[in-house]
Amino acid sequence: MSKLWGGRFSKDTDKLVEDFHSSISFDQKLYQWDIKGSIAHARMLGNVGVITKDEAEQIIDGLTEILIEIEAGKVVFDPSSEDIHMNIEVLLTNKIGAVGKKLHTGRSRNDQVAVDTRMYLRAEIETIHHLLLDLITTLINLAETHKETIMPGYTHLQRAQPVSFAHHLLAYVEMFKRDCTRLEDTRIRMNVLPLGSGALAGTTFPLDRQQVAKELDFDSVCLNSMDGVSDRDFILEFMADASISLMHLSRLCEEIILWSSQEFHFIDLDDAYSTGSSIMPQKKNPDVAELMRGKTGRVYGNLMAMLTVMKGIPLAYNKDMQEDKEGLFDTVETWQKCLLVMTPMLKTVTVRQEAMLQAARGGFTNATDLADYLVRKNIPFRDAHSIVGRLVAYCLDEGKNLDDLTLIEFKTFSPLIENDIYQAIAVETCMANRNTIGGPSIAQVEATISADRQFLAQRQ
């Protein structure tokens, strides 16, 4: 078939070039947004008198029918029409005749694809935002249950100080809250209408861009037509948001993998979120968490690919920018799938509270509290640090924990230590005494949960 742009060409496009050039295999995902944008454009053309209102209604009715037919599975897109925009236009012209050829008045595929992609991503951001809020809710509910469940906090993957499981989970709530607000910021910057920018220099027709913006729910219109067609910052920003969020998910997955191992045995994953081995019948593998950890890399790759595509492109539109969609679609799908599986996996986890408590009681997680005890006896902190260090070395030689030492052994290292030391270095006391804002004490955890629930309430 002849191309809609083929007037100045004397040869057909080479078949290899046509296959290489076509994007319909993936950009057909934009069909509903392309039709929605076209309906708004047609209505505006009728209102400003560029086409008659009757012609605008014919176009709108035709596009509405095409949308219904696509969603009913009655349309097969044609690769020779290159992309979703030209496929829709051909379908429209075949349906309503020559009037369909008037739809493209005052616009270009350059501003058309820009508005389609923004509307698509705006909808997907809303979906992801809701999924993040669901995940945050799940973490908060789990934290509410485990305010008194003591576990070791780690630095360098070495036991460090006792915290509650709730406090640990709420650290991830903070991360996912930031992911939410990053998406909210991205949506604000993205929600600017590029339609009306034309190919790069606007149009000679008296378009009412504000009318189109209002109909399509954009907050404003772009103020530079060249930027309007060539800007892909919103895709880059979304991909960066996704990369950061997947990094957060990956970190949580890494801990789930560790915690579910026999070496830790802090949690048991539900069978529905685990898999077995084809050869070792005893195995229960955290494959869901491992795969999520792996998918983080592909999202990073999509961001780096897009940054590389954009880094050397002169103004305005260039065909390189067709490469923005496959990575974007993959990032959206990957992020959504990861969130969809993470939330129920956490809801069904079994927490082994006793194993966590015993781990907190080992590994000298109360050593800092012993040093603080000595400081309260008017020993300078550095001296207290040294005394406790020698006590730990002694315990290692003797195969003991600090709690196991007799008062006589304690006094060998400092005569100021009294019988109240045992209460002072009990892991329950260690956690309860960390009562500053953001700390792991029950009171502070409850305050944090309250603030987090307010965050959720503001977004319902």
Word description of this protein:
With 460 residues, the chain is mainly alpha-helical. It folds into three domains: 6-105, Fumarase/aspartase (N-terminal domain) (Fumarase C, Chain B, domain 1); 110-358, Fumarase C, Chain A, domain 2 (Up-down Bundle), CATH 1.20.200; 367-425, Ribonucleotide Reductase Protein R1, domain 1, CATH 1.10.40.30. Helices cover 61% and strands 5% of the residues. The chain has 19 helices and six strands. The chain has helices spanning 15-21, 24-27, 31-48, 53-71, 84-96, 109-145, 165-190, 209-215, 225-230, 233-259, 287-310, 324-347, 353-361, 367-375, 381-398, 407-413, 421-424, 427-432, 442-457; strands at residues 150-155, 158-164, 192-193, 220-221, 267-268, 350-351. The strands form three sheets. A two-stranded antiparallel ribbon has the order 1-2. Strands 3-4 form a two-stranded parallel sheet. Strands 5-6 form a two-stranded antiparallel ribbon. Helix 3 (31-48) packs across helix 8, helix 6 runs antiparallel to helix 7 (165-190) and helix 7 packs antiparallel against helix 10. The longest helix is centred in the first third of the chain and has 37 residues, at 109-145. It is elongated and about 100 Å long. The two termini are 51 Å apart.
Distance N terminus to C terminus?
A: 51 Å
Give the class from helix and strand content and strand pairing. mainly alpha
Molecular shape: elongated
Main sheet record: 2 strands, antiparallel
Number of strands: 6
Please tell me the CATH architecture of the largest domain by its name: Up-down Bundle
Please, what is the CATH homologous superfamily of the largest domain?
Answer: Fumarase/aspartase (Central domain)
